[in-house]
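Severity: low
Component: inverse-folding endpoint
Summary: output formatting inconsistent between runs
Steps to reproduce: submit the following structure tokens with default settings.
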């Protein structure tokens, strides 16, 4: 009688190993052979005080911070000021191809810029008179004249949609150039006009803030600020941009600090956290063994979290 065939023994799943693939040594790149990221020489130009910085190709010119330059843009030649000395940046930070810096501004360019500034003031006055004459519900904020005088841009705010076709025709007949009207928001209006914040300093958006970041009421809550909108709103009526400056730090410190109503163990016994100061790393604890005494302050590193206080659920209304 033939012996029965032996069945293969199955290995437990934990004993199976994934197949290993070893690359030949010629495929491996040594650290010294790794290519450095491509660097590009740029010149940062700002067209308005506190405005956004745009990158341009210096084209063999050594531009220093504060120098006035003439650059080529999508809407023609523009007069700007270098925001910093030209420098090398990673190619990933730019969008190719870059427009070029044509030249440093000459005395003639400076004089032409002053003439354009005077033209903008005159255009502002004339436009305001025409807005009143046409009875339009809009507020003129700023007028901008392109360096080559090919266009006049009028920025305005309004709570509703405005039909300004007749206004554009009248402006074009006076200034004999292309007219463009753009409706902006109240934050952009504050950035253009400027002013003083409740801190007593010029508003951030008009001096150095290039872009508006998202600001939420949650940021004010985490910083233990008053939720009175009059106290945490800027001159534009929106939440202050500076609420965002310390938000990341507060989030990190709050994560390290036990929350209110946490059960903690201290050198003096167990207690409940009743107040926190995240930036200082201080928590105030109401000790269980002496509930009538004032809460005692501890460093968060000197206490141990052991649990949370159960909040009593609100009684449900009885159904009729």
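Observed output (run 2 of 3):
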């Amino acid at each position: 009688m033939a012996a029965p065939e032996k069945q293969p023994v199955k290995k437990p799943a934990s004993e199976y190993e994934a197949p290993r693939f070893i690359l030949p040594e010629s495929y491996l790149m040594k650290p010294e052979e790794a290519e450095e990221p491509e660097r590009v020489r740029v010149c940062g130009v700002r067209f308005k005080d506190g405005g956004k910085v745009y990158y341009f190709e210096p084209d063999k010119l050594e531009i220093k911070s504060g120098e006035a330059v003439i650059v080529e843009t999508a809407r023609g030649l523009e007069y700007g000021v270098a925001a910093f000395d030209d420098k090398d940046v990673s190619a990933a930070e730019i969008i190719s191809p870059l427009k070029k810096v044509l030249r440093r501004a000459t005395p003639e360019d400076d004089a032409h810029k002053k003439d354009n500034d005077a033209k903008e003031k005159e255009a502002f006055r004339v436009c305001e008179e025409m807005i009143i004459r046409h009875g339009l519900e809009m507020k003129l904020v700023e007028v901008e004249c392109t360096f080559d005088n090919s266009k006049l841009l009028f920025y305005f705010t309004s709570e509703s949609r405005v039909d300004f076709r007749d206004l554009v025709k009248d402006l074009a007949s006076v200034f004999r150039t292309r007219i463009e009207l753009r409706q902006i928001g109240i934050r952009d209006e504050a950035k253009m006009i400027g002013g003083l914040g409740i801190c007593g300093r010029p508003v951030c958006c008009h001096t150095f803030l290039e872009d508006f970041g998202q600001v939420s009421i949650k940021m004010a809550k985490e910083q233990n600020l008053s939720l009175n909108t009059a106290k945490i709103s800027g001159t534009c009526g929106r939440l202050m941009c500076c609420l965002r400056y310390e938000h990341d730090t507060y989030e990190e410190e709050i994560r390290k600090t036990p929350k209110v109503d946490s059960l903690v163990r201290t050198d003096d016994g167990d207690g409940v956290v009743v107040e926190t100061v995240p930036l200082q790393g201080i928590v105030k604890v109401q000790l269980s063994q002496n509930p009538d005494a004032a809460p005692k302050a501890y460093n968060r590193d000197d206490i141990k979290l052991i649990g949370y206080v159960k909040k009593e659920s609100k009684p449900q209304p009885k159904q009729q």
